[in-house]
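User: Hey, quick favor. My workstation is busy. Could you predict this chain's structure for me?
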Amino acid sequence: MNDPVNTSVSVDNTGKELVLVKPFVPPIEELLPYLDRIRKSRHLTNGGPVHAELEQALCDFLGVKNICLFANGTLALMIALRSLRLTGEVITTPFTSPATIQAIYWNNLKPVFVDIRENDLNIDAGLIEAAITPQTSAILPVHIFGTPCDVERIGHLARKHDLKVIYDAAHCFGVGIRGDSICNSGDMSVLSFHATKVFNTLEGGAIVFGDQTLKKHVDALKNTGLGSDHNLMGYGINSKMNEIQAAFGLCQLKYMDGVIASRRAATMKYRELLAGFNGLILPEDVAGVRHNYSYFPVIIEPDIFGAGRDELYDHLKIRNIATRKYFYPLACDFTEFEMYKTTDLPIAQRTAKRILCIPLFHDISEEQIRFVVHSISELYRGSYK
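Assistant: No problem, here it is.
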């Protein structure tokens, strides 16, 4: 069949992989003064001046009150759970990175999995209450691909049952809802600054929270539990962000509005070119949400599209187009966590077998987008809208 739009390309992609993600890297001439400053000060870590500068800059950029920086997002999530002194069970989603569940496990907590919603792939807030038991101490939702969960309903349930809410906001840098940062939802939100994210500090992460009294406690826990007076304030772990990571982040920050705008333009082009394909469910913007366009997932309905997700994955791989089955397997399907699966999760299971993230990054060209869409069209056996 002919393409519903002109997706023909002249690019010769032979032998050259089109990557799934590509980190934004600031100009080297902007980073060098920070490196020289760090070298001269010999203050390499332990909450140095560059670290403090990034914390303040992020509070201003994101519109949040308090932020604590970490070496990576997983450590940040582990400390977030530890800082709230949780016990027993934590309700969460199976449709997430294993890192989310690892953080629960390392705190000697039990994950309780609840199915997701079909429209946004986030935890189904309507199913949470039935999963609450006397052992439940918290809810750990994940804003999948940067699309906000039903924060109002989750907040209502948390207040009703006296539960803490910690959001895994790994995908959410710069995301807002009704004019406010999504990171201001719940008791805490945890960001990832990994190289694959919209904003990165090489590796890195952060906890965002509104309660100022938690700042000293969290800062101590990420410094092996040692407070400013060198006395222990709890059972911590060394998870500090160093000065070079912080400098890298500071150099990036002023480019983030432009980076997100570029990702939005690429997303719109994908939506335009893929709109005619029956059997492909595309991500949509949500009213009132400021998106950051962190990923471009498509869900393949094989009976309509004419081919399955794995077949499409292999087809694109042959054409040197990197994609990812994201999130597959489900977190609850790994051997290490399958014992915690106590109920059917039909939507999550079906989604995990049909989802594929295709290349999206700040400087992807229209020609590269057309090449991806053209390659998808080569396998398409359905009718056009």
